[in-house]
Amino acid sequence: MRRPLLRLALAGLRAHAVRLALTGFAVVVAVGFLAGTLVYGDTARSAFYTDLARSARNVDVLVEPDAGLVTPAVLERIRAVDGVAEADGRVIAWLGVLDRDGRLLTSQEHIGYALSVPTALALAPYDVAAGRLPRTPGEIALDRATVSGAGFATGGPVTVLDQAGVPHRLRLVGILDLGVNRLFGGSAVAALTDTDLVRFTGTGDYAQVVVRAADGTDPATLRGRVATAVGPGHQVVSGSGFRDRLARQAAKYVDGFLAVLLGFGLVSVTVSAFVIYNTFAMLGAQRTRELSLLRCVGASRRQVTGAVLLEATVLGLLASLGGLLASLLVGYGLIRGRELVASDIPLHAPVVRWPTVAVALGFGVLVSVLAALVPAVEAGRVPPLAALRDRDAAEAGGAPLRRRRGRVVVAAGLGGVGVLLVLAGLPQGFPGLPLVLGGGMIGILGAVVAAPLLAPGAVRLVGWLPARVFGPVVRLAVANARRNPRRTAATSSALMIGVALMAMFGVLLATARQQAGRELTENFPVEFVLDTVRLDGTPTAVRGPLPAGLAQRLRADPAFATVAEVRQAPAPLDPRVRVWAVPPEQLVGPIRPEVTAGSLDRLGPDAVALSRRLAAERGLAVGDRIPLGLGPADPLTVVALYDDAPTDGAVLVDWAAYVAGYGKAAADRILVDLAPGVSTAAGRQALDRLLHDHPTVRVRALAEQADALSTTLDELLGIFAALLGMSVLIAVLGIGNTLALSVFERRHESALLRALGLGRRHLTALLLVEASLIAAIGALAGLALGVTLGWAAALGLISAYGHGLPVVPVGQLALCLVLAGAAAVLASLPPARQAARAPLV
């Protein structure tokens, strides 16, 4: 039985090779993208691991302290251990590095790092890209990114700050290559001699001790010996464990991007499933006589169903193999594309692991079989006498009433579940976003189920005006699209999903861009924010006290209209809550927060204003009392709630209450707004001139933050559009495949129209108009669903974190519609021309 079944399936594949090849190409694209995502992840991790060899090369054992640092005495004990070939202590300390304009270089709130020069070059955590390492005091080597970013030159001067903030000029003698070591987070990294390390950072102890085993010594045995020698209070890690940890730290952001890619890959596979289902359903309808003849000569229902499923299995396997080959290009392209958006994944040969092969083949075959399951079962139900029936009459009869009622029930159920999930997720803000999106996807699935019932009416609505304007050809196209609602619905559903996802993310990202710009403008209504950095060993660029008299000098400059001194500190009873205050005469204009309830006029020594978010977390309202530990008047009465403020403090207190709780400390932040007519560039020049003698004062410009955020959102929008374009491409292929199948299915009808006088050009136009109608229905339905879902999700986020209304990017969505329609018409052009060339007989 198996051998005839296989021969039957192979014969079916050969008989419909061209049409199945088009379907197989959709599977190739989907599987290639899905497997390419996995290839990207494996390649990126391998690239990180290989590149990190420079940070942990030749390291067989690593010693780190549980707290504090490793002393030189411990290093000497390690060197005395039997089997140790070399051991080196690594000093890692905080160091301030100034740019060529005398401003402190910081990255993500962190200042720079100072590293020691290795005593054993084989254990160096970096390479020397140019020049050499420091040999005498007064010399410095910097990482390549800092040198290029700040415009330093080998042999030129570099200024660093010691712990007291005193500048010291050194000579740049080398450039370091750190690879992709994420430990330093993009901060400036300098290599100094031991003398300069102690002089500038105040430490000569080690953050790490790395050990290389002697020839013939087992690293695991050496690790045990070293652990015994150093005693408690130290962590002793193997070299392989050290490399694994560095690789995880460096590549952890790959996992987040990988999850996004996998999500879009699954979307592409889902869209391709619609194409496969539609293809096999149409082939089953076309092969009614063929299948009925098989039943007449003795084939059972199970054999016919098995033959169709076997065809789908072979198709899925062949297409999956093609997708696996395509995944190499996709994975490598993703890495190169990721570099274009400011990533630093090293180039590496594509890596294909066996799980990737299993996923590619498994998903391709599984999706193909599942998509063909319903058409296969229906093919098995073809009665032997179906060869005597009129196929066109059977198609025109429509679906039985019972089946239509069942479809309505299922669609309504899915839609109801989707609405409930969306309503449940909206009040939760960002944590509820998965519920909103999941509910929306279930709702879209409900729309797909109901599509065959809605397709005739949608075709009539979309084609009504063109039919009246352009005449008989368009009316025939409308009639053809309405005649087989299942085919029209299945074809348009694939495009609907792709456009819906593009519309949804378009609304979300456009809203995010506007909200982010609004929040920056409202939270930082001033042009510049000034804070300072402590260099006494504190790792982060925290807002320490600003230089005395700086605010007065700023107020004396006519370029600045507003200069406000902000004090901020943790609440005594709850250090997680930041309390802030400004002198009363400065709490005006752009410094005054936006009040949503109550009034700041009632702010006094026994009163407080809370941010809206903190009030919601604590369940507080105007009139309630909150204990903060700020003196005898505590707890304080809440007199106002605010939404946007020029600081990130959650509690605004009266100036007298702040002084009573914290004393008259120096301001830790100065907010500066420009005078009318002064440009941002001119204001920045004035600030640089006034801050020339204060290199530790950092200047942050609102315009720079807004531009950086806008650039990031534009990059995300481009990435999402490209990823979703994969599913739209598959849907367009499905439209072309469907029309090619319908051309073959309706060859008698096309010949009859030609015999009645319809020219080749008009027949081509007829089929192109039909494809355009199907594409328009899918694109418009997807647009409506996507905008609705994106609006709901964006509205939930706005209600939780901001205010206003979602943004619908009309131009972008219109372009999406035009491109989808144009692509569908182009995909349908070859089969339409083929139909026009068919002979009348």
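[next item in queue]
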Amino acid sequence: MHREIGMLTAKVDMILEGIRRSEEKADVSRASTHRRMDEIVDRVSKMELSTASVQDDVKEMKPTVEEVQRWKLMGLGALGVIGIAGVALGVTFADVIRRILMAAFGR
């Protein structure tokens, strides 16, 4: 009877030791998880600060970009007008030269 009680006690001790080891592993795992979560929180907060800074910079640059785009459109419009005027002058010049040659050579 004492022997059986001793065996049961040993088995209970083994079970308790297994539970203790399992709890230690779980504690280590939870600590690792919490550490990684803390790192992620730090990274996210840094990203939020960086994003806020970038948004401020973009707000500051936006009027300048819009002005440069307006200049570009004005320049393209001016080139179009110059092109049309050049064609008109070229046609007129060619017609004048044709008339001068016709008058000079009588054709």
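[queue empty]
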